[in-house]
Amino acid sequence: MPKKKTSSSGTNKLKIRGDQQLAENITELSENHVKKYQVENPIRSLIRLKQFPWTDKQKEFFKIALHPSTNIIFVKGPAGTSKTLLATYCALQLLNMKVIDSIMYLRSAVESSDKSLGFLPGTAEEKLRFFNLPFLDKLDELLTSIKAEKLEAEHRVSMFPVAFARGMNWTDKCVILDEAQNSTAKEITTVLTRLGKNSRCFILADPNQTDLNESKQGAVENITKKFIDEESLQMGIYTFEFTEEDIMRSELVKFIVSKLNKS
């Protein structure tokens, strides 16, 4: 089985690929932090990723997300800070590094609290496809030659609502819970307690864009606060926050978010 190689000095360096200006190498802390990965079904050929001019803040995120000691990251930030793109990029890199064997994208199937979508035509898979569009868009944005459909066919990526996660045991997987501001405390707990051997999890949220009613809002923030301590860090649980200054979508979005936050 493939095992992670370490250098004679007890440290190992990993490059962040896919960037014209490569980010600084990630230096592992010590052999005590190196996981003995034993992925039973590693990807056979590397997935080529498109190049982006990553910001310093994004490179900081990569260093945590790809570090061998990391298990869970709670990521908070406003719209346009590339939370889903960065998590998807890291998941694909972990797949390339043979640290995991597949990626799982989850969202809570929540409609807008202001207006219902009503009946959606098609099969159950076709109905849920609408909720998975952000992830599919990011895959298309990142991949060069291989298509998202091929990764699905090879069972390297899968997408489904959080409600389907009960009773599962996730081994050697990277789990992305997107739009977690729309997840209840029970749903987030369900995701966190499914994580098995060699799994990694990104919990992504923008608290300003929740579709839950007032009685259910704030679950992701309350849970995140429980893990902001030294004990959680020792268990590989991190928090990372993007701000208005990190909005990359456009200057217009940065202006809009700034104005809305002042009101």
What descriptors fit this protein?
alpha/beta, two-stranded antiparallel sheet
Can you walk me through this structure?
By secondary structure, this protein is an alpha/beta fold. The chain has one domain (35-110, 122-262): 3-Layer(aba) Sandwich (Rossmann fold). Helix content is 31%, strand content 14%. It contains 8 helices and 8 strands. It has helices at residues 56-65, 83-96, 124-142, 148-153, 185-192, 219-226, 230-234, 251-262, and strands spanning 13-14, 26-27, 72-76, 102-107, 157-161, 173-177, 200-205, 237-241. The chain has a 6-stranded parallel β-sheet, sandwiched between helices. Helix 5 (185-192) links the parallel strand 6 and strand 7 (200-205). Helix 2 crosses helix 3 (124-142). The longest helix has 19 residues, at 124-142. It is globular and about 50 Å long. The chain starts with 12 loop residues before the first strand and ends with a helix. The relative contact order is 0.18.
The first-level CATH class is given as Alpha Beta
Question: Which percent range describes the beta-strand content?
Answer: 5-15%
Strand order of the largest sheet: 5-4-6-7-3-8
User: Radius of gyration over alpha carbons?
Assistant: 18 Å
Low-confidence stretches: 1-36
What is the architecture at the second tier of CATH?
A: 3-Layer(aba) Sandwich
Distance between the termini: 56 Å
How helical, in percent, are the residues?
Answer: 25-40%
Q: Number of DSSP helices?
A: 8
